[in-house]
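forwarding from the other thread:

> can someone predict this with (3S)-3-methyl-2-oxopentanoic acid?

sure thing
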Amino acid sequence: MKKLLTLLSAALAASFAQAADLKIGVAEALSGGAAQYGTAIRNGFQLAADEINAAGGVGGNKIALVIEDEQGKKEEAINVFKKLIFQDQVLMVFGPTLSNSAQAADPIAQGAKTVVFGTSNTADGITSIGDFVFRNSVTEADVLPETLKMAVKKAGVKKVAVLYGNDDVFTKSGYDNFKKALADLNIPVTTTETFAKGDVDFKAQLTKIKASSPDAIVLSALLAEGAPIMVQARQLGLNVPIIGGNGMNSVKVFDLAKDKAEGLWVGSPWSIENQSEANRKFVVAYTSKFKTAPDQFAAQAYDGLYIAAQALKKVKLSGNLPADRVALRNALPEVKWSGATGDFQFRRANDKAGRPAGYDANQTAIVSVTRGGKFSI
Ligand code: 1QQ
């Protein structure tokens, strides 16, 4: 066994030394309902990789993305992680953005002492999985209280109805955090309704919500359900503000809900209106490459790869993959970066027993509302 392991690690080291490429895995939902997010994320990574490689790569080595479709499914995310980590032998893995998939697949990376870096995954507990788990997305716990406070201040919201998906890690965590923030802010809840992934008819829940006369609907949903919920609410004459979480945070809501997407409040560190030089450069480059406007998901992926590149610059790659993976993990927490989403640094997260675990984003959110087919601050 020991001999086999020695042979195996020698083979790994040799294959790595020959390859000048820095292989980085990307596991995203590129098909199914969550491809709404996954496509923008893949584009963000590709743009950053092209820019970094055009500027000479990292220490002369080019970044080679190995992109896999996790289909927005836990089982597929696990399969894809195993392929990327054990077969493709990537240095680290980006993704999955869906916390539902991340909660299932991230333990594979943690067990293999390989960095997993989620962009835009925001549920509680993801970075508690372990010290190889990173994300550069501001969590629902950090964002939702700010979104609520702004809706109270600007839209005079005094009482709300709550609607959430109860079978997804992200939508459930969003609900838990909304509930806590509503209690902290002393905002009464008129009714709480639920739905499940794949539902298409929300009229029963929305009728109950309408009868409870809320000033706003607090919604923890992914776009596949969240967009039709907005449409059906407006069709029922429920024209109150909708206060959403990260799942509603995409320009795709305008494609899916058209003019019924008006009056949606969301929070994010990124805004297309942020005029910083880094963001202007990103928005222009993205739009010209992909002929479509970027969203927060694209911006966080773009910044994510630049953050990893900063850590890679500090690592002296030995050609021994396990050692290089650990060295990359150890270099990441210190990275500070100013990108499309603004100034960024990591913040240590704890595991369930309160011991230091992975790393969250230390950033603040900007609250936007949809008006005239765009998100405005
Ligand atoms: C999560 C999210 C979703 C909105 C990602 C698409 O934040 O699952 O954590």
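The chain is about 45% helix and 20% strand. thats all i got for now
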